[in-house]
UniProtKB/TrEMBL annotation:
Belongs to the plasmid mobilization pre family. Pfam families: Mob_Pre. InterPro entries: Mob_Pre (IPR001668). It comes from Acetatifactor muris. GO terms for biological process: DNA recombination. This is Plasmid recombination enzyme. Residues 141-175 form a coiled coil.
Length: 303
């Protein structure tokens, strides 16, 4: 409203939320959109019409005749003269005053508005920057390269984690196999108890009578059974913990596969392009990590 000069000059103002932030959406697990406002308005300015020399009354010449509203892009978006720290007008080598671009002034006003609204972490872009804006396709390619670089690093970490998990799973498998063998021995001990039930015979008074050989065997089986009972409980406890640990590692493995599915799918569909992109990113990382020579930067005057 303030920039347009009034509600009557605004033709349309539409809030859009159709730009999805893919990186944040994947990181948070839900769709994140950028909200932005599209405004179309007529650049209307006030203009003072002066009395000219043709006026019959000499006293009125040069004074304001009337104030009219005029559509003027250049006056609505007028540039301002650049000043130095002492407040003097900055000039070029030909003595012509340097002007601050109208769009740069708009950015200044927008920055001040956001700061006043409480967005203290909002940053103003670099004044006088000659950096060109990227096209939509170039911007998306740049974003994809950055995401691919980050994804490549994540994949390397996940591959190390996967190798460690795979090693642990194999160890758990061996542990379970050993427990199975021990349980087989314990099952044999349980079979001995069944054999006890078939030993001896009842006499006339209902008591069991055992032969000397059967009595010796009974003592041996009883001792073996007591020892096996304790081992069985311990083995069951170990088996329960091993199965629980195995399920935890299986869950982590599935989570790891889910987090790297984008890269795996990209590698499956475009293996050669993915390989080249990774090699290019590795070279770029080496170049950026190398110490750069110190260059004297020429201070540029703001345009």
């Amino acid at each position: 409203m303030k920039e347009a000069g009034g509600e009557e000059y605004i033709l349309s103002a539409v809030m859009h939320a159709d730009e999805r932030n893919r990186a944040l959406s994947e990181q948070l697990g839900r769709d994140i959109y950028h909200y932005h406002l599209h405004v179309v308005y007529v650049p209307v300015v006030e203009k003072e019409v002066k009395w000219t020399k043709r006026c019959k009354d000499p006293a009125l010449v040069g004074t304001t005749k009337e104030v009219i509203h005029q559509v003027s892009h250049s006056k609505k978006w007028a540039s301002e003269k650049a000043l130095d720290k002492e407040g003097n007008i900055q000039r070029d080598e030909n003595g012509k005053a340097l002007l601050i671009n109208a769009y740069s002034l708009l950015q200044d006003r927008f920055f001040e508005h956001m700061q006043a609204a409480g967005f203290k972490d909002f940053e103003r872009g670099e004044r006088g920057s000659t950096a060109a804006h990227l096209g939509v396709l170039e911007y998306k390619i740049k974003q994809d390269k950055e995401r691919l670089a980050g994804l490549a690093g994540d994949v390397a970490d996940k591959e190390e984690q996967a190798a460690a998990l795979d090693k642990t799973l194999k160890q758990k498998g061996k542990q379970l196999a050993g427990l199975d063998k021990q349980l087989t021995v314990t099952e044999k001990a349980s079979a001995m108890y069944s054999e006890l039930e078939r030993m001896g015979k009842k006499n006339l008074w209902g008591h069991m009578e055992l032969l000397p050989e059967e009595f010796k065997k009974l003592l041996t089986l009883a001792k073996s059974g007591l020892a096996s009972q304790g081992k069985l409980l311990e083995l069951q406890r170990q088996l329960t913990e091993a199965v629980k640990g195995l399920e935890i590692y299986r869950t982590r493995w599935q989570d790891l596969k889910g987090r790297t599915k984008d890269y795996m799918e990209l590698e499956r569909l475009h293996p050669e392009q993915t390989r080249k992109a990774l090699e290019s990113l590795k070279r770029l990382e080496k170049e950026t990590s190398a110490p750069a020579p110190t260059l004297k930067r020429k201070q540029q005057q703001e345009r």
